[in-house]
Design a protein that fits this description.
Blueprint (H helix, E strand, L loop, with lengths): L5 E3 L4 E3 L3 E2 L10 H4 L4 H5 L2 E2 L3 H8 L7 E4 L10 H4 L1 H11 L3 E6 L2 H4 L3 H6 L4 E6 L5 H7 L6 H13 L3 E6 L5 H11 L5 E4 L13 H15 L2 E4 L1 H4 L3
Parallel strand pairs: 5-6, 6-7, 7-8, 8-9, 9-10
Antiparallel strand pairs: 1-2, 3-4
Length: 236
Amino acid sequence: MSNFIYNSKAIDGPAVSLYRGCGHRCSYCYCPLIMHMTKADFYRARPREGVLDGLRKEAPKYRGQSVFMSLSCDPYQPIEAELGLTRKAIEIFHSNEVGVTLLTKNGKLAQRDFDLLASRPDLSRFGVTLTFDNEADSRAWEPGASLPKERIKSLKKAHELGIETWASIEPVIIPEQTLRLIQKTHEFVDSYEIGKWNHDQRAKEIDWHAFGHAAIALCERLGKEHLLFDDLVAYL
């Protein structure tokens, strides 16, 4: 079994996390819980020891597949600007004919690597997490992440460069904002993946049945590919 690339049931495919922890400090993040870390420790992100050497050994096994980056951290969190592990990992994967599916909340930093993604559009998929449609809510809930306008700008830029784009709509905290985000970005986002808010008592106050049907209707009206996660489908 690989030490760094692993097969994830959550995405039904291979995934990798280059860092342990994440500096975006999102208050709704449940990764510290599932990784048995305190939030303070999780927020002190650091690179996984030997990860690039590990990827060089493991990547050839995944030729013809696409690796998800990443489930338990952000490939473009603040320390990536200094360390550049994600860029090096993309180069390793592409050189082995392995695709990459990126998901980030730092659209501004991610644009640094659009040259790599655009050079191999057959092996590249770029996505951002869309949560709020305004700066105030984003700063309150995701103080270390880039602002909504920066994430949206990166999606538009990627689309213009011919890179496949997608948006992760999870968690849905304010349903009205989520629907506005889909409406605002549909012209340059190829597909949406939508999931509810979990691990928080406040999520029980949301009418997930109504939201789920509204999201489906909107995506269908706009002609956009969409996937609802099982936790949301259960309410339909």
